[in-house]
Design a protein that fits this description.
The protein is mostly beta strands. The chain contains no helices and nine strands. Strands 1, 5, 6, 7 and 9 form a five-stranded antiparallel beta sheet that branches. A four-stranded antiparallel beta sheet has the order 2-3-4-8, with no helix packed on it.
Length: about 90
């Protein structure tokens, strides 16, 4: 898990087959946004996909990307909710 606050930029890899990068931006009015991408970096025969999911602690909202499957498939995401922090994870599924 990574927790980032205003302006936090994060890049993570797991298991050699998943990669993601995101930026967290806090806006006036108690709003936080996470903007990034997730990519499957292994070949299509490994049977695994990459996914990012996030929880906004203040609002309790949880979001997740679709599964990025197949070597090089990349999915962009941008989510916002109330609060000033977001907890985000990259996983292989």
């Amino acid at each position: 898990m990574t927790t980032a606050r205003d302006g936090g930029r994060v890049g993570v890899r797991v298991g050699g087959g998943a990669e993601a990068h995101w930026t967290v931006i806090c806006s006036s009015g108690n709003k936080v946004t996470i903007d990034g991408w997730v990519k499957d970096t292994n070949g299509p025969d490994d049977g695994q996909c990459a996914q990012v999911y996030a929880t906004f602690p203040y609002s309790g909202v949880t979001r997740s990307t679709s599964l990025a499957c197949g070597n090089g498939q990349r999915l962009d995401f941008i989510w916002s909710s109330s609060g000033n922090s977001v907890d985000a994870w990259l996983r292989e599924v």
